[in-house]
Specification:
This protein is an alpha/beta fold. The chain has six helices and ten strands. It is globular and about 50 Å long.
Length: 209
């Protein structure tokens, strides 16, 4: 894990990878976006498809200047910051510099850590092992709950849905490694509870990052 004393530097970040691709899940599926994946996470979800980010420690951190230059070079107009858990770090300077280039900024977070930065869209993907901070319920643009356990995860999803703001989109996403099993659970649940939508990881069908 990244040393605690290093987490609050706004000038450089522990970036695992960056790439220009297509948003594959959630309400913004199909849109082109530049992705910044942070290293480090304290959730430990057993179904996580980015486990390489959990305890990843870079040889050197990437400066915000270098990150923004890469985004501008890609010609992207949107940036998704994901992880790991990106809010382990101070993202204020990154969002400030991105907005200078009129980039639209999307955050994907569990909501378990204090918000930093200014965002155009917040995807709240909460985990029961560490509940979101209260501030995220009013700020979330979409609530995305991964369905892995048929008996526990729908209960958790409804608990979170009761807390988010009225304009927040509600999405249930079948866990990919058990997709043939989880998909019918989610489809059936959404048909019975139409306030929800189904989110599918379309980038895995397309075989893109």
């Amino acid at each position: 894990m990244i040393p605690v004393e290093d987490r609050h530097s706004p000038y450089a970040l522990p970036v695992l990878e960056t790439f220009y691709s297509i948003q594959g899940e959630g309400l913004n599926t199909g849109k082109a976006a530049y992705f910044i994946r942070m290293g480090g996470c304290d959730m430990g979800c057993r179904w996580c498809d980015s486990k390489e980010a959990w305890n990843w420690v870079p040889e050197s951190w990437t400066t915000v200047e270098v990150l923004v230059a890469g985004i501008v070079k890609s010609k992207a107009n949107s940036v998704v910051v994901t992880g790991g858990e990106p809010l382990l770090y101070d993202l204020g300077l990154l969002t400030q510099q991105c907005h200078k280039h009129n980039l639209k900024l999307y955050l994907e977070t569990s909501g378990a850590h204090k918000l930093s930065g200014t965002w155009d869209w917040i995807c709240l993907s909460p985990k029961p092992q560490k509940e979101p901070l209260a501030e995220f319920y009013s700020l979330a643009s979409e609530l995305k709950v991964i369905i892995y356990d048929k008996h526990k995860d729908f209960i958790w999803a409804e608990k979170m849905a009761d807390r988010v703001n009225k304009d927040c989109a509600l999405l249930l996403q079948p866990e990919w490694s058990r997709f043939n099993e989880t998909k019918p659970w989610v489809v059936d649940y959404v048909k019975k509870h139409p306030k929800w939508r189904v989110s599918v990881q379309t980038h895995k069908y397309l075989r893109i990052p």
